[in-house]
From TrEMBL:
Organism: hydrothermal vent metagenome
Protein's name in the database: DUF2062 domain-containing protein
Keyword Glycoprotein: no
Transmembrane segments: 46-74, 81-101, 168-189
UniProt signal peptide: none
Record keyword Transmembrane present: yes
Pfam families named in the record: DUF2062 (PF09835)
Amino acid sequence: MLFKSKYKPTIPHIMREWVWPKAGWLRWSQYVWRRVWRLADSPHTVAIGLAAGAFASFTPFMGFHFVVAFVAAWVVRGSMLAAAIGTSIGNPLTFPFIWYATFNIGNWILGGKAKSGDVDLTEMVGHVWNEIYFRVASVFSAAPDGPLDGVNNAWLEVFWPLIKPMTVGGLVLGPICGAALYFPVRAAVQSYQTRRRERLIARHLVPSPRGPDQATS
């Protein structure tokens, strides 16, 4: 390609940008929310889509949050783009709290079957980060290993004591987080769309719903 960038990001650079964006988390979050407000769908469609993405962030299926978000958005008839943006609720700043909360709540619901002596949460988190690094490296390298290679019985034996309670906890906390986001996001999108339409009417770029005579009175 004529205008293709010659700069190829390295794996450490990609991971560093994911952990701490170059513009900082505050500017990054402001950019994300502006994208949400400016989506062309109805306030309900945007808000329920974002809620679906937030729900996906509470599942322990790292690397598949987009897939979970899209499926959830399809079920509730939400915006797919809003669902993708909603997965940003899960990020390096929030994941430690999400994982801790989902694991403990899921463990409590399951009757405390995953005892502290059976699961070393710190060790498991280390395994998760190593797995993320491998998946990212496999995408940006010529390695033949695909993103699903290595998922075998041994892998499940290591991660299942962690995944099971986190999945149960995520099914509880995910909808709660989604519901908590739905109403303020819907109101914010509605307010933005109303103000935008009023500006367009004032500039005579769209017709007034009251008619030309009433609009000028």
